What we know:
Elements: H1 8-69, H2 73-95, H3 98-111, H4 113-137, H5 150-159
Helix pairs in contact: 1-2, 1-4, 3-4
Amino acid sequence: MQSPDTNPSAAVGDDASRVKEQAKQTTREAVDDVRRQATETAERQKYAAAEQADSVAGAFRDTADQLDRRDQGWLAEIARRCADGADRIAGEMRGKDLSELIERTQVFARERPATFLAGAVAAGFLLTRFVKSSERRGHDDAGNGRMFSQTEEQSHASTH
């Protein structure tokens, strides 16, 4: 009778077990690496979204200023509130982890769907007004609808 040390079947079984464990370990390491990379990417995107929220807040403030100049104070106030909200969102994004942000947004949308939708509509309305007013400022004096690039505007301004 063969001893377990010299039994070819046992040796093959041991090798298979080792290969199986190595494969499991390699898989765990790969999953951990993918998870780490996904987390890093999500964090970068979260901070980019916070920067975008800051930019949106600035756009709302610019819109509010334009509305004030046009004696549309009630719309200007809405724009300021949206700017404040965008500032809060940017701060929340920077201060919370991604899963918590998603959960809080879902809870808010479930608890206050009308407010959530109204905020989205108001934001769209105000941003559209801002974009349209920004486009009008870029038209040339002849009013032919041609848009100037920033370089063309500077050249145009220096020749007039």
